[in-house]
Design brief:
The complex is a heterodimer of chains A (about 260) and B (about 160). Chain A has about 260 residues and is mainly α. Chain A has one domain. Chain A is built from ten helices and no strands. The longest helix of chain A has about 40 residues. Chain B folds into two domains: about 35 residues; about 100 residues, no CATH class. Chain B contains two helices and eight strands. Classes of the chains: A mainly alpha (about 260), B alpha/beta (about 160). Chains A and B meet through helix 3, helix 7, helix 8 and helix 9 of A and helix 1 of B.
């Protein structure tokens, strides 16, 4: 019996030490990526290539889901607000919830599952087929050549995608509230404009998306680089990317929100 | 370095993203209406500001003429100091009356300015002398109940007599 407890404690200790080890390795990898990103900024075509894969190809899913999220917000907002005779505030509700929370968070979650998983699978497969090792043999640094362009492409495309998500969501809300239901168009826009502050709402939303972009792509490239070089290892790493980055997005969102919006609106 | 179709798509993507940011800033946000006009700062001492918040509008005749920039508490007079920036296009007489009003029954609170008849106008750093505090609903209900109660007791007394 005591023997079992001892092995149990050892198992837990081993896991804790292992995860701390991995966290340290991830931090070192992240710093190394930042240090070695000079090459990818000089040869910007590399970043543009990755921008095409992470940014342009995520456009459809971001635009369609943004439109539908905005439309649902318009419907639900109207449904609730009309009970208080305040249905003209539906524009305010749609714009504020998109700019502050839903735009950054939902587009980051979609980005993590659409682009983050692809980045992990690509880098993991490159490792499994020993392409990364071959690059090292040819004195090409895989972090500078493979990891850094993907990281920067993700960091650049995330705020743009989230802005598109919020903008199309506002028009989705407009479509439902003004065109389908018939809320007054003038009060829809003017109440929205008087309630949304550029620095307080828009800029804080952009800061959020930048942080999410860094977190998602850093997790994705690290999981890919750290994947076990087998088919199982790559699939496990892809799953871990989606799970870890979704949790990171939601956790970071809470921290950032508590810093940014302290009930002074 | 060759130009590729990929570059065109990436260019379109970046342009669309920046366009969306502009839409958010100008159409959704209030950056367009918030031009960096010159403004002058005046202070008002209020006994009670109710639920007034920083960034609340300052209106005169229903037109937004400025915004509340800061709210402080004065330990000398035990009053609230409300500092507001007023657009320098609008000049107000020195004896302007400032009151805290509510838009609608449960709407946000704002400062309403009612111009007086003085020749001299308010300048940067001036203090508004005449102010009217916010109506606090609890106090009003309390007064109303108190009046009702005193009326009731006086009528009872008159019945006995």
């Amino acid at each position: 019996m005591p023997r079992r407890i001892v092995t149990g404690i050892q198992c837990v200790r081993h896991r804790v030490i292992d995860s701390i080890w991995r966290l340290g390795y991830a931090t070192r990898f992240f710093l190394l990526t930042l240090i070695k990103s000079g090459t990818s900024l000089r040869r910007f075509t590399l970043v543009i290539r990755e921008l095409y894969f992470t940014g342009v190809q995520s456009l459809i899913i971001i635009l369609v889901s943004g439109l539908f999220v905005g439309m649902v917000l318009g419907l639900q907002g109207f449904e609730t607000l009309q009970r208080y005779g305040a249905e003209s505030a539906v524009g305010t509700m749609v714009a504020l919830s998109l700019l502050r929370e839903l735009g950054p968070v939902v587009s980051a979650l979609l980005f993590a599952s659409r682009a983050g998983s692809a980045i992990t699978a690509e880098i993991g497969l490159m490792k499994a087929t020993e392409q990364l090792a071959a690059m090292e043999m040819m004195a090409v640094d895989p972090i500078a050549r493979v990891v850094a362009p993907r990281f920067w492409a993700g960091v650049i495309s995330m705020p743009l995608l989230a802005a598109l998500f919020s903008a199309i969501g506002v028009y989705g809300g407009y479509l439902v509230a003004v065109i389908l239901i018939g809320v007054d168009e003038g009060s829809f826009w003017s109440q929205m404009q008087s309630a949304v502050d550029f620095h307080y709402d828009v800029v804080n939303g952009i800061i959020k998306t930048c942080v999410f972009g860094i977190a998602v792509t850093a997790i994705a490239v690290f999981e890919g680089y750290d994947a076990a070089p087998t088919a199982e290892g790559v699939s496990g790493a892809t799953t871990r990317t989606v799970v870890t980055s979704s949790l990171a997005i939601l956790g970071l969102d809470f921290i950032l929100t508590s810093f940014m919006f302290r009930g002074m609106g | 370095m060759q130009r590729a179709t990929m570059d065109l798509w990436v260019g379109l993507f970046v342009m669309a993203g920046i366009g969306a940011l502009l839409v958010l800033a100008l159409k959704v946000g209030n950056l367009g209406t918030y031009s960096a006009n010159d403004s002058y700062q005046v202070t008002g001492n209020f006994e009670n500001i109710g639920g007034l918040k920083v960034r609340a509008p300052v209106k005169s005749a229903g037109v937004v003429v400025g915004r509340v920039t800061d709210i402080q508490f004065s330990t000398e007079t035990y009053d609230a100091l409300v500092i507001m920036n007023i657009d320098s296009r609008y000049k107000f007489p020195k004896d302007t009356f400032a009151s805290i009003l509510t838009s609608g029954l449960i709407g946000e609170q704002y400062i309403g300015l009612a111009a007086g008849g003085d020749e001299a106008t308010l300048k940067d750093g001036d203090t508004i002398m005449k102010t009217n505090s916010a109506l606090v609903l609890e106090e009003m209900i309390g007064k109303f109940l108190f009046n009702k109660a005193s009326e009731g007791s006086s009528s009872e007394n008159s019945d006995k007599n």
